[in-house]
Design a protein that fits this description.
With 289 residues, the chain is an alpha/beta fold. It is built from six helices and 13 strands.
Length: 289
């Protein structure tokens, strides 16, 4: 195309797709190019700014590895991860929320009532609830992949002093749909700021803090998978989560209970000698269409 200009390059790009291109790929790529080109024209992007952007992406790739996913973190802090979550959340079920860059596959199976706190210091939290369909009927055989940070605010993949699957476990529900485990009360923490994402946060005057939370991935035969988080209503960062993960229906309340009320059937039964916290939260899955 010899008569290429800044005004027609987008249209020319659209015409370069071959006739056998997958229709969905064509739709996504053409829309991406349309918005990228419009962005460059809108801000009058300079060569130096373009080179800075390319260098940023290269640094994000260089710092990423099997345990550090800087592009996922970038998507999170730009709000893109949460937007995709909200676009794909189906009415009637628990809202989805960000997966984050620190999930580890292959966590061990844990029994109902298992203790994930072990020898870590901090307040005991008993998290429990049911996995149900939108009408409240329990789901048998749902698998709940659970993970959180340690009391130092680090996930096991970030911390060489933790076991690989520290504060990770997978629980399977029975006929009553119940799940339940003990752990240490999660803490607010900062996302990593030693890479290019940290540069963006500092340059835009944003803090790196996330409110404390528990992560869940729930799967069950015949139901849409759910990736979500739950947050306590008293966390100071609840309304300014740097990755935009909080949803109204994912906010729960810790209820303090006396030690003598600690229920039987949990690994810490008979061992609790101080007040503990309870988080009751049901998880609703939507049937596959």
């Amino acid at each position: 195309m010899r008569t290429l200009t800044k005004d027609n390059i987008t249209e020319v790009f659209m015409g370069y797709f071959g006739p056998d291109t997958d229709p969905r790929l064509r739709e996504v790529m053409q829309s991406l190019a349309h918005h990228l080109h419009a962005f460059a024209r809108d801000v009058n992007l300079t060569h130096e700014e373009w080179r800075t952007g390319i260098a940023f992406l290269e640094r994000a790739g260089e710092i990423s590895d099997a345990e550090r996913h800087e592009f996922v973190l970038l998507s999170d802090v730009l709000g893109l991860s949460s937007l995709v979550d909200m676009i794909n959340t189906v009415p009637g079920g628990t809202s989805s929320s960000v997966l984050g860059p620190f999930h580890i596959s292959g966590a061990p199976d844990i029994a109902l009532g298992a203790d994930m706190k072990r020898d870590y210091e901090g307040e005991i939290l008993l998290a429990r609830g049911r996995v149900t369909d939108p009408g409240g009927a329990p789901i048998d055989g749902a698998r709940i992949d659970i993970w959180q940070t340690a009391p130092n605010g680090l996930y096991s993949s970030q911390d060489p002093d933790q076991d690989t699957y520290s504060f990770h476990g997978i629980q399977t529900t029975g006929a009553d749909g119940a799940y339940g485990f003990t752990t240490v009360k999660p803490v607010s923490y900062t996302v990593p700021t030693d890479g290019p994402v940290g540069d963006i946060l500092r340059a835009t005057g944003r803090h790196p803090w996330r409110p404390s939370h528990l992560h869940y991935i729930i799967t069950a035969e015949g139901y849409r998978p759910l990736v979500t988080e739950i947050f306590p209503d008293d966390d100071p960062y609840l309304d300014e989560d740097t990755v935009f993960g909080v949803r109204e229906d994912l906010v729960m309340r810790y209820v303090e209970q006396p030690p003598e009320s600690f229920p039987e059937g949990y690994a810490l039964s008979g061992k609790v000698d101080e007040p503990y916290l309870v988080a009751d939260f049901d998880l609703k899955l939507v049937p596959l269409a």
